[in-house]
Amino acid sequence: MSEFAVDYAGFEIALKNLERYHEICLMQKEIGDDPDFEEITLMAEIKSFEICYATLLKALHRHLTWNLGAVDLGYGAKPIFREADRNGLLEDGAEHWFGYIEARNITSHEYVIEKIGRFLELIPVFITDAIKLYEKMTGAPWKSK
Q: 93: alpha, beta or left, given left = phi > 0 and alpha = psi -120 to 50?
C-alpha cells in the first residue's frame, strides 16, 4: 500500500511508560504516607496518559493511511477512530474510544487533581485497549517492560 514503514516505537515507549507510571501510582496508593508524592505520581501518570494518547493517535493515523490506504480522514481523533473501527482495529468500537478523547481533553486543560480524578479510573482500561490496538497494528505480541 505504501513505500513508508510505520514506526511504532514512539507509541510502544509511551505505552510502556504509562504502564510503569500506573504501577507506581497503585503502589503509592497502598503506601499513602506522603500526599505531595501522591500528587506528583498522579500528575506523572496523567501526563504519561496524554503522551501515550498522542503517540497512539499518530501511529494509528499513519497505520490507516500508509498500511491500509485510508484517505480523507478529516481532522481530529473521531474520524481516525471511526476508520480504525471500520478496519477492524478496535474491539469495542469507535464510540468506546471517544471516551478517551474526552479524558485527554479534560486532563490537558484541567489542573486540579480533584476535577480530573474521575478520569484516572479510565487509565487501566485505556492501557488494555492500547495494548490490543498495538498488537493488531504491529502483528506482534505486547511485551511489558
A: left
- All three cell numbers of 88, joined, read 477492524
CA angle (89, 91, 96) in 5-degree steps = 105
DSSP 52: H
Q: What is the pLDDT of residues 36-50, one digit of tens each?
A: 888 888 889 989 999
Report the alpha-carbon angle 46-111-59, nearest 5.
35
The helix/strand count (H/E) of the chain reads as 6, 0
The DSSP line for 68-102 is T------SSHHHHHHHHHHTT--TT-HHHHHHHHH
Considering only CA atoms, which of 51, 61, 67 is closest in space to residue 19? Answer: 51
Q: pLDDT of 75-130, one tens digit each?
A: 899 999 999 999 999 999 999 999 999 888 887 776 666 666 777 889 999 999 99
Q: How is residue 126 written as a grid cell?
A: 485505556
Rounded Cα distance, 20 and 136, in Å: 22
The answer to whether 83 and 64 have CB atoms below 8 angstroms apart is yes
Q: What is the pTM of this model?
A: 0.91
